[in-house]
Design a protein that fits this description.
single chain; about 260 residues; alpha+beta; OB fold (Dihydrolipoamide Acetyltransferase, E2P); five-stranded antiparallel sheet; 5 strands; rod-shaped; CSD_CS; CSP_DNA-bd; transmembrane helix; mRNA 3'-UTR binding; Ca-reg_mRNA-binding_domain
Length: about 260
């Protein structure tokens, strides 16, 4: 790559594309406007339009003519710049300028960043303790309420009492599989399948999985559907405890309609 470091030029920033990180310098000698990238500026920080600069040139590696190799703001009036001082800045930029250009990090910081990201990903794969807070206590109370209703229903059918622990276990492992798939960017379990497991009695296990794995806790639409399922279970058992005859009658009517169809 050919450079023209020895000939420092004076010019003015006449255009800057903030979103793209480049602009153009108009040289004072009347020559063609010069392309300047943000990496050529001190600290990698863009200069405002109208700023006088001292710059050196280099040949564009893509064959598009000349571009600014280094450019620094010019202090004082045009033509009266201390070029020795500017040359030192261009040839030997401060250490922090090289580090901060384009938001890049020193090698040690890059290594630390990669290590932190790796540690974060490893933590994502490990189980966390269930937080003991008002929400967890409330969910535990709802689960106990539903199990109480299932116990009372044993003379009619033991299926609900069997379904809650069994489906909760299946839901927990389904969440674990989906979480692992999310980390590995492989095939995911559809949200509708997870909700089906919750609806079949696995919502307590799904709650434990959400909190211990931090999975499916951010998406608002998913959480709304989850809590609707919980409310339906609680409403069902509240109706069973308050008016079991009415609930049995409704279930029989629903079954008869289904069979007739």
């Amino acid at each position: 790559m050919k450079t023209d470091r020895g000939a420092l030029r004076e010019g003015t920033i006449i255009r800057w594309e903030q979103g793209k990180g480049f602009g153009f310098i108009r040289p004072r000698d009347g020559s063609k406007d010069v392309f300047v990238h943000v990496t050529a500026l001190p600290n990698g920080r863009p200069l405002s339009v109208g700023t006088d600069v001292i710059f050196s040139l280099t040949e564009d590696p893509k064959g598009r003519g000349m571009r600014a190799l280094k450019a620094v703001p010019a202090a004082g009036k045009p033509g009266s710049v201390n070029k020795t001082m500017v040359e030192q800045q261009i040839e030997h930029p401060p250490q922090h300028a090289r580090r901060n250009r384009l938001g890049s990090r020193p090698r040690e910081e890059n290594a630390e960043h990669r290590s932190t990201r790796t540690d974060s990903r490893r933590r994502d794969q490990s189980l966390r303790a269930i937080p003991i807070n008002a929400q967890s206590v409330f969910v535990g109370f709802l689960a106990l309420f539903c199990l109480t209703g299932a116990v009372i229903m044993i003379p009619v059918t033991p299926i609900p009492l069997i379904a809650y622990p069994l489906m909760s276990l299946i839901a927990f492992f389904a969440y674990a599989r989906d979480k692992l798939s999310a980390i590995r960017n492989t095939w995911r379990i559809p949200e509708s399948s997870l909700h089906l497991l919750e609806a079949l009695g696995g919502w307590p296990g799904a709650y434990l999985a959400q909190k211990s794995m931090r999975h499916k806790t951010v998406k608002t639409s998913y959480q709304i559907t989850y809590w609707l399922i919980v409310c339906l279970h609680v409403a069902f058992w509240a109706t069973w405890l308050i008016a079991p005859e009415m609930l049995i009658s409704v279930l029989k009517s629903t079954a008869e309609i289904s069979w007739s169809n």
